[in-house]
Amino acid sequence: MAVDHTEFPAQARVVLASSGGADSLGALIRLQELHARGDIHHLSVVSVDHQIHPESASWSDLACAQAQHLGVSAHTLRVNVPPQTEHGHRSLEARARAARYQALADWMTTQPPSGVLVTAHHAEDQAETVLLAALRGSGAAGLAAMPVWSRFANGWHWRPFLDMPRAELRAPAEQSGLGFVSDPSNADLRHDRNYLRAEILPRLNVRWPQAVARLDQTAAQAGEDLTLLSALAELDAGGTLDGTDLPTVRLIGLPLARQTNVLRAWIRRRGALMPPRARLQSFVDQLQQSASARMPTLAWGDWRITRYRDRLYWRTGDESTPATPVVWADKRQPVAWTNSRVWRLVPTNSSDPLAIDARWLTRDWLLRARQPQDRIRTQAKRPSRTLKNWFQAQGVPPWSRESAVVIEIDGQLACLATLGVDLAFRPAHGAPGWRVEAVPTAPVVQLPPDDLTG
User: Fold this and answer.
1) Where, by residue number, does ATP bind (predicted)?
2) CA–CA separation, 230 and 237 (whole Å)
3) Fewest CB within 10 A of the end CB: N or C in the chain?
4) Residue range(s) occupied by CATH 1.20.59.20 in the chain
5) Cα 217 to chain center, whole Å?
């Protein structure tokens, strides 16, 4: 196997996600050969123990033992798979997969930047993913299946074996004399992927010996199509797909198919699962109606998109504020209060409308929910306003009003976190200041297309 040095990061630190199975061991042996040749700067192994199967811990132990036998450092990550009600993932396999990638992303962010996560996906895995996508009625994003390279956490996700047949990938493992895991769940034909692997793909190969290669070509072509669709969505959205809101003026003027394409691209960018096709289409139809009539919402899983006035807003998780206030004493450290966010200070300047003067950093700050008597003054030569009136004037969406975080200093409302700062607490012209930012407690992880559960 050769490394494509046109894409491979210099001095790459490669981390193989290993289940301890034959595919993972075959991948490890091949990667270790690349490392020995100097093509890979650093190689290690991480095994995720989902704690679902009684023997899962011993499987991770075996994955680590395989690595250590080959002189490669190894580490185990143990995760708790969330219940069915969380994150929009219905099946156990999907929830385990989401937990696995979240754990891997969290771990990668603790390592030096530009790390490369490797998974041992091979040609049959890619063919199965294409078939699953086709049977689910997926478009280009589903049929594109798994790319060789994609961004992941603070680095990259590399699948170097996608064009390699399973038997070829496993050959070094079977010849090594090392033991490897055989997950009994892979023989359970109730799972769609297992059924395709055991019953359908072998029959396709008998009838069409090049079936796997042709399906992989389909994925490659769909990937090219998806690149064009994503570029079109960026143009149609005016390059605003990285944010948590979208203007509707450009969107509503587009043909319906291009409106849907923009929304799909935005959803992919936010790392969410795709909503049901009929639900997404119904939402697009609602957007054609008067913006003043109501606030149409597309809701699926743990995600929501709501139109308010002339914008679409991305919403996730619990938007409520806790009833019990919290004191923020040490501003050098972020403070956790709301369920889905932590709050931190970042340096800014007086031209920032959300800047707070540095002289207030030595005081204790009280983070609390809004109260009926709260008022704020953000404009000179204007009186203070009730928060209700101020929210209306600023066009703050109703759900953000209810979840607004008030920062109180010396008994006065100083700031509405991420929304506005009272004039009495702003820095003088030209003076430095500090801005309150909200950071998700769990960073958004762009989930790859369906892969194996082992």
Assistant:
1) 19-24
2) 10
3) N
4) 237-316
5) 27
Given phi > 0 = left and psi -120 to 50 = alpha, else beta, which region is 411? Answer: left
Residues 433 and 352: beta-carbon distance below 8 Å: yes
450 is in an annotated binding site: no
User: CATH 3.40.50.620 region(s) of the chain?
Assistant: 13-218
Q: Is 22 annotated as a binding residue?
A: yes
Does the pLDDT at position 449 exceed 90?
no
Amino acid at 403: S
Known binding residue 233? Answer is no
Give the CA count within 13 Å in the CB-facing half-sphere of 276: 8
- Report the b/e string of 215-236 with b at 16+ CB within 10 A: bbebbbebbeebeebbeebbeb
Place 272 in a pLDDT band, splitting at 50, 70 and 90. Answer: confident
Angle at 333 between CA 329 and CA 337, to 5 degrees: 70
Distance CA 305, CA 263 (A): 10
| Closest alpha carbon to 150 in 142, 135, 140, 160 | 160
Is 272 annotated as ligand-binding? no
13: left (phi over 0), alpha (psi -120 to 50) or beta: beta
What is the band of 271 on the pLDDT scale with cuts at 50, 70, 90?
confident
d(CA 253, CA 26): 52
* Overall average pLDDT of the 108-120 stretch: 87
Is 20 annotated to bind ligand?
Answer: yes
Alpha-carbon gap, residue 307 to 248, rounded angstroms: 8
Convert the pLDDT of each residue in 306-341 to its tens digit: 999 889 999 986 677 788 999 999 999 999 887 677
Q: How far apart are CA 444 and CA 436, in angstroms?
A: 20
CATH fold label, 237-316: Chorismate Mutase Domain, subunit A (1.20.59)
What token pair was written down for 418?
Answer: 């991420």
Residues 140-167: tens digit of each pLDDT: 988 999 999 888 888 899 999 999 999 9
pTM: 0.78
pLDDT digits (tens, 9 = 90+) for 59-102: 999 999 999 999 999 999 999 887 765 445 567 777 888 889 98
CA distance 59 to 9: 31
Mean pLDDT across the chain? 88
List 328's β-bridge partners, or say none.
365
Cα–Cα distance between 256 and 286 in angstroms, integer? 11
What is the rounded CA–CA span in Å between residue 62 and residue 179?
8
> How many other C-beta atoms lie within 10 A of the C-beta of residue 408?
18
